[in-house]
Each structure stands twice: as C-alpha cells, then as structure tokens.
Amino acid sequence: MFAAQPMSTEPDLNPGQFEQIVDVFEYAFKHYADKPAFSCLGHTISYAELDEYSARFAAWLRDKSGLNAGDRIAIQMPNLLQFPITVVAAARAGLVIVNTNPLYTAREMKHQFSDSGVKGVVILENFCDKLEAIIDDTDIECVVVTQLADMLPQPKRLLMNLAVKYLKRMVPSWSIDGAVTWSDALSGSPDRRAVPDSGTDVAIVLYTGGTTGLAKGAMLTHSNLVHNMMQLREVSKPLIRDGQDVIVAPLPLYHTYAFMFHCLAGVYAGNLSVLIPNPRDLDGLIKTLKALPQINGLVGINTLFLAMSRHRDIGQIDFSQMRFTGAGGMALTISVAEEWHRVTGCQVYEGYGLTECSPVVSINPYDKVKIGTVGPPVPGTEIMTVDDDGNDLGLNEKGELWVRGPQVMKGYWRNEAATQESITAEGWFKTGDFARIDDDGFIKIVDRKKDLIIVSGFNVFPSEVEEVVNSHPGVAESAAIGVPSEKSGEAIKLFVVRRDNVLTIEDITAHCRENLTAYKVPKEVVFVDDLPKSNVGKILRREIREQELKQHQ
C-alpha cells in the first residue's frame, strides 16, 4: 500500500474552517468582493454580484418555491452565469444539488429525476420540451426556466434571447404549468441566511455508472467536497495566484471535474473562470480566448487539446501568461501533451479522478511531471493495487486500484447494495481500473476492469446503449464496445443481429439519436449473424473487443 502524507495543517489549508460548501462561498464574498468571479458570453460578474444574485435566488427558493431544506434540485444547463448563481443559491437554501447533463434525452432525464427524487429543477428553456414530456413521471413541483442570455445587460439580453428563439430556432415549443422565469425568481430582496441544518450531510448527488450498470447517484457530502477542494488546492497552489488568475472553463460544469475546479477550488482562490457554453464550437472558443487580456490556466481533456492545437487560428492566442493546463476525464496521450506544449509553451498536468471521489485522486506535481502517468495521490489519500481477492500487490504490480481518503463518497443514492459492492468495510473504494504504482507513488492506469467506454471524457455504459438498441423491433440482440479513436479517445462500435434484413444502419442510428445523448450514439454499426456467448448465454463483449483491438494494432 502506498500511503500519502497527511494533509497540510497550515491555517488557510485547514478543511475544518468550512463545515458546508456555502462557507466556501461566504469566504470568497468576504475576501474577493470586488474581484471578477465568472465571465460568459462577453459579460463578467464580480464576487459581490455573485453574492447578490445568489442571495436573491436563495430567498425565492426558501420562501416561494415550495422546496424544503434537504430536498433535491436539478440544474440542467450548459456553462452559463446562471449555473454558479444557482449552485450558491441552492447551497444557501440547504438544498441538495443534482447536476444534469443538458444534452440528456427525455428518457435519460426521466431516469435521473425519478431516481434522485428531485422536487425542483432550474433548466435552460431550450430543453423544456423534453422536461414537459416526462415531468408527470417525476416528483418535480418547482420549475425555474432561464434563457441563454438572461444574465447579460440590456439590450444584448433581449436581442440574443430573441435571436436564439426566433432566428436560430433553438427553442422548441413547450408548456409547463407553474413554471417560473429566471428574472421573476431573482426579482425579490436578497437573503443571505444559510440554513443551519438541512437534515442531511449530502451536498450534491452526481450521476455515474460507477464501473458497471445503469447510472447511479454518488452522494458527495459537504466534507467530501471541502476536503477534495483543499487537496486540489494544496497541489496546485504553486501555480495559482489568489485573486488574480483567469482560468478558461470549457468543460461542462455539470461534470464533476469542472464542478470541483471552477465552482469550488476556483472560487476559494478568488479566480475568474471564463465559462464556455459550447466548447465544440471551436471557432467561437478560439474567438473568446483571443479577446481575453490574459490566460493563466485552462482545464480540459485530451480531445479538446488536440482540436485546439490544430485550429488554424491557435497562433493568434496569447499564451505567454499561461502557467498550467489541467487534464482529466480521459487518458492524455503523450503525442497530444507534446503537441499542446509545443503550441502553447505550457505543460499539461494530468490527473485522475472519479465522481465517487469528488473527484480528484491524483495529479502530476508541477515540478515533477511524469508523462504517461496520472501522478501521485493528492495529500491525505491512500492507494493500493490489489488482486482478485483484495490482497495488496505492492509497487510496480498491475492490479485493481483501490482508493481511501476523505474525498471518497458516502455511497450511492438509495442503492445500499451497490455501495457495499464498491466500498469495503475499511473504507477502500474499488475504482474498477487496473493500474501500477511506481517507486515514487506515481499511478499509471493500464486498463479498465469493466466494459465502460469513455468518449471524450464521458462515461458510456454498453448495457444502456444495448438496451436502447434492443428496443427496436427489428433488432434481435446487440453488443456495444469501445474502439480506439484519435478524436474522442474511444468511439462506440455496435454489433447488431437483425430479426430481418429490412433493418438498415440508418434505422439504428436514428433510433439511437432519438433515445440517447449524442456522445452515446454509436459511430459505427455492423450487422452480424451472431454474437459470441458464454455457455450460459451471456454476450462476451471482451472477446468482441479483443478481436477489434487486434485490427487497430
């Protein structure tokens, strides 16, 4: 077992000063009131304004929403100023946050909202038609609807919202009884009272499939998040200037990695996070970066670094003041790290984490980067690799990576069986990843234990894709696997056994697009006569994958 050193006890790195995540926000409002906090679509709000707006929304949530402390509230929107405002307001009102992928289909929304029992949702109007379709199957009683430009000054707000709705036709028609507009929810007087006791220690429920199966809600407590924030701060502090740095935020804030970095660690440091609503719009992203007076950091993933490095206008961005690039969410390839360094002059610091670990487990230190590894564990974290019987294998041996530390989740929401399967009685979390730990404690991820597919940093579970595909009347059975992709790390390849020859690839693709988020839609579909199975009839995905990987070697 490799045991990390205990956390620093310096006063400003003491997690004990914050009992709840709302205390982190209050700290920032006190120390950085006049500093810029978040910027999006060309408009910036200060920490004082974040304080004001969130206090207004918190007052409405507490007094007029019908929600009570401890209830769950979903946030479903891309990276907009409304996102951090909602996070702070929900924390002040004692609500448990449920981050939701804004690109979810109605089917996916229904599962998450029903499973988590959310009673309120703050949603971008563009997605309200999907909410309308499933809201009667949930416990949602409170709906707050925001438009893309609602936090921008007039007349830009009006013009952009009208353009999105009527010119670009990005807002389908919808009707939800009792829905409240964002402006109405923020129209009252501010109330900065924090709920002293919400009745739960859970701060946020983030959905993940863990290592297998349908999406499960990881319960992250206030203590989990505060400790992980401090762990992240301790290893990144040499590269961060409090109250001065501009950090670009292209990763979606609903993702655990971006949420931790920008909504907690960045706020505690008094930094400015530049929110990018649509990082897939590379031209727009590059235009935003070109207009920034300084860029001190950027947090992204392998596919984004590759796409940016090869953009025709990348040379027009001033990277001279950028001191760090953080990578996580998916494996960083050596060639991409080297190309990014060559183009920007900035080293990529790769780390490793899981939603169940709040998420940060390890990071390459600023003064000793080992490309190809995800660094040593962050302070206060223990790691070890084990065999199939849970025996510690020691250093330099391949085994399943187990993690123990204050950032490990409380458990899966309303799923005690999955919790007990994933966390041992001694507090070790079973990651489901195979790794080696070298003599310096650096972790190298070498394989995944289960069938999880990672597309551009997002988890895709074959069982979910197959369930959707198999619901098509023309499909007898199917198997989904991940295959190497330079663009997305992995791509989904689907093998289908047809009931008859009338079924086409286009039929399968259209069915998937209707029922799955875009990144879960297979990039390649192959019709086969049969699928390899075990003697009890279980489809052998691993055998299919091994055959495919041989073709990519």
UniProtKB/TrEMBL annotation:
<keyword id="KW-0472">Membrane</keyword>
<dbReference type="Pfam" id="PF00501">
    <property type="entry name" value="AMP-binding"/>
</dbReference>
<keyword id="KW-0443">Lipid metabolism</keyword>
<keyword id="KW-0276">Fatty acid metabolism</keyword>
<dbReference type="GO" id="GO:0005524">
    <property type="term" value="F:ATP binding"/>
</dbReference>
<comment type="similarity">
    <text>Belongs to the ATP-dependent AMP-binding enzyme family.</text>
</comment>
<dbReference type="GO" id="GO:0004467">
    <property type="term" value="F:long-chain fatty acid-CoA ligase activity"/>
</dbReference>
<keyword id="KW-0460">Magnesium</keyword>
<dbReference type="InterPro" id="IPR000873">
    <property type="entry name" value="AMP-dep_synth/lig_dom"/>
</dbReference>
<dbReference type="GO" id="GO:0016020">
    <property type="term" value="C:membrane"/>
</dbReference>
<feature type="domain" description="AMP-binding enzyme C-terminal">
    <location>
        <begin position="464"/>
        <end position="538"/>
    </location>
</feature>
<keyword id="KW-0067">ATP-binding</keyword>
<dbReference type="InterPro" id="IPR020845">
    <property type="entry name" value="AMP-binding_CS"/>
</dbReference>
<dbReference type="InterPro" id="IPR025110">
    <property type="entry name" value="AMP-bd_C"/>
</dbReference>
<feature type="domain" description="AMP-dependent synthetase/ligase">
    <location>
        <begin position="26"/>
        <end position="413"/>
    </location>
</feature>
<keyword id="KW-0547">Nucleotide-binding</keyword>
<protein>
    <recommendedName>
        <fullName>Long-chain-fatty-acid--CoA ligase</fullName>
        <ecNumber>6.2.1.3</ecNumber>
    </recommendedName>
</protein>
<comment type="pathway">
    <text>Lipid metabolism; fatty acid beta-oxidation.</text>
</comment>
<dbReference type="Pfam" id="PF13193">
    <property type="entry name" value="AMP-binding_C"/>
</dbReference>
<dbReference type="InterPro" id="IPR042099">
    <property type="entry name" value="ANL_N_sf"/>
</dbReference>
<dbReference type="InterPro" id="IPR045851">
    <property type="entry name" value="AMP-bd_C_sf"/>
</dbReference>
<dbReference type="InterPro" id="IPR050237">
    <property type="entry name" value="ATP-dep_AMP-bd_enzyme"/>
</dbReference>
<keyword id="KW-0436">Ligase</keyword>
